[in-house]
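Our preliminary data section would be incomplete without showing what the modeling component actually yields. Below, a chain of 354 amino acids is followed by its predicted structure, encoded as tokens that our downstream tools consume directly.
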Amino acid sequence: MFLQEHLDGFCTSIHLFAQHLSIELISEEKYAACGSASPNNSMGRVIAVANQKGGVGKTTTAINLAASFAAAEVNTLLVDCDPQSNATSGLGFVKDPERVSSYHLLMGAATGDEALLTTELEQLWLIPSHKNLIGANLELVDADRREFRMRDAIAPLRDRFQFIVLDCPPALDLLTLNALVAADAVLIPMQGEYFALEGISELLDTIERIRAALNPTLDIEGVVLTMFDKRANLAQQVMTELKNYFGDKLCRTTVPRNIRLAEAPSHGKAALVYDPRSKGAESYIKLAKEIIERQPAAVTPQPAENLAGIPASGQTSDGGPQASEQQITTEGTEEHRGDAAVEEIAPAEMDKSA
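Predicted structure:
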């Protein structure tokens, strides 16, 4: 009885919070219209992974979504827009102050071509970040076209990549603003908790302001639940409420808590390279497939079964054997289900700095 009253009160607070902030939770049809109206759909799709709340899995999502696109044989660029540089180190690159980074792009000191780095995955490239990027918030205050610096920097690259994924910092600052102005759409990772809901409300308000003044075609790519525990009543209740608000914009795929997702960055690898049979890797493969299927006019991916053709031990298609479809599937095997049971109860969390 107490639990039911708690859940009912939680649902009521969601509605009251939205009303308090005067946020218009736009209908699914309006979101779809925004996406189809974008003049850039014939070029690479730019997706900003954003949520100003920390610890919701932004960087983990950016790394593994980009890697899953690349595993599907889709040319993909990951741009690290966070001064913490976790997406950079998460793909195995050590900190190097001499390396061209996203800071140089924003300051107009280098081009996108000069900043590109190749990764373990043959069709995944990276533009790294550096801690100096935090100074851009101050250095760009009086600069011309300060909100359009990232858009201008990646514009020459859009015809070379079918997806460009922007990993945003956990703040609604000038860096996030640049990413949202440059993006065609926003992917919002969030946990199934009340505080995460507060953050998404503020982000929606920011997106509306950006649409009105800077980027009228900015779309919502989707809301994806991360660190999701389907056994928790509260998580299920939040999912139901989000479904009512966002409709099909709430991704069908959820990302569970998974120890392999937590371990992979320490090895400088995406989860699907570190352990392609883990539940976390499978979830991001499914998420990538779901996003690709949403815009058939924007990208021309390889057949969906190629999502299973992922490097088995950090080897790329030009550097070693690939795992077969029988070895890697998005549905999992009986053997893997046994492993997953252990992973689900592990207390590990995704990268809290994401």
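The first strand starts at residue 45 and ends at 49. Strands lie at 45-49, 76-80, 117-118, 124-127, 163-167, 185-190, 219-225. Preliminary results of this kind motivate Aim 1 of the renewal.
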